[in-house]
Design brief:
With 290 residues, the chain is mainly α. Helices cover 70% and strands 0% of the residues.
């Protein structure tokens, strides 16, 4: 019996790799509410009342917004009890980021079979988005776009994991529990292909080219000079997020990293950004457990 299971797993894995190589992975639809949030935040004429109405129509999102507004990171002396108060405290830009993140989490980063892996991937995506803002601010680049690039840098990972689960179910393995060994094998495949899948998703969602390029190229900076600044920004933010989320505190962003040269970031700039780690982690925890 174990041999049969192993052979089946290998067969499913090979079939998935073939689909990844040929670009046949199904792209999830961008939730309409997420698209609405992006459009509203990008429009300078959007009012706090308009955004409040959109959030009010989503009780789960409204609860998260209120919780973040009252958190230690953003909370003031007065407790927030309404969405209008929350928007006044957080601002339209930050509220848009919270809303987009929450909608994306529930629609794409939601695969019960891989719950532990997805939770880890999502925490790192949030941390990368937040660090991307700090890096962008340091190099005087668009902060809102940098957040989106960082948040979506690993969007291909949950999509690949969901596709694998579907393949197992279609092959008669519905309800089959996936072993830790099988999970490790699939995660290695995910790491090899997630950037290509993620950039394809971003393009089909009609996201800016800077987002698509940063997803595709943040891991390899050989041609960084020909890529938008967001690619290097996300590369730096990914490493800072790993550092902040790793209890060992090992430094991964070294002074000779090519991305730092591309962005003209000096060691003192990096250390200044690192001081934001505690706030980043606190925000991630609130958004993950909202």
């Amino acid at each position: 019996m174990p041999t049969d299971v192993t052979e089946a797993t290998a067969s499913w894995r090979d079939a998935l790799e073939e689909k990844l190589s040929s670009g046949e992975i199904a792209v999830p639809v961008l939730p309409r509410s997420a698209s609405q949030v992006m459009t509203m935040v990008a429009n300078p004429d959007t009012t706090a009342c308009e955004l409040s109405e959109l959030v009010h129509g989503d009780p789960a999102l409204a609860a998260i917004v209120l919780k973040i507004a009252n958190s230690a990171v953003y909370g003031g002396r007065t407790r927030i009890v309404s969405l209008q108060q929350a928007i006044a405290r957080l601002g339209i830009g930050l509220l848009g980021e919270i809303a987009y993140s929450s909608i994306l989490h529930r629609s794409v980063f939601n695969i019960p079979e891989f719950e532990a892996e997805i939770h880890r991937i999502w925490k790192h995506a949030l941390a990368t988005g937040l660090f991307s803002k700090h890096v962008a601010r340091s190099v005087r680049h668009n902060v809102e776009n940098a957040f989106l690039c960082g948040l979506l840098h690993s969007i291909g990972k949950p999509v690949i994991l969901r596709e694998y689960r579907k393949m197992v179910d279609r092959a008669g393995g519905s309800g089959k529990r996936i072993s830790s060994e099988e999970t490790d094998s699939i995660l290695r495949l995910v790491e090899s292909h997630h950037s290509a899948v993620g950039s394809r998703i971003a393009r089909q969602w009609g996201l800016p080219e800077s987002v698509c390029s940063s997803i595709a190229g943040h891991e390899m900076l050989d041609d960084a000079a020909d890529q938008p600044p967001e690619t290097a920004i996300v590369h730096v933010a990914v490493l800072l997020a790993h550092e902040a989320l790793d209890p060992s505190g090992q430094s991964l962003l070294l002074g000779d990293d090519r991305a730092l040269m591309v962005l003209n970031l000096y060691p003192e700039d990096v250390e200044e950004i690192r001081t934001e780690a505690e706030e980043v982690i606190e925000t991630v925890e609130v958004m993950c457990h909202g």
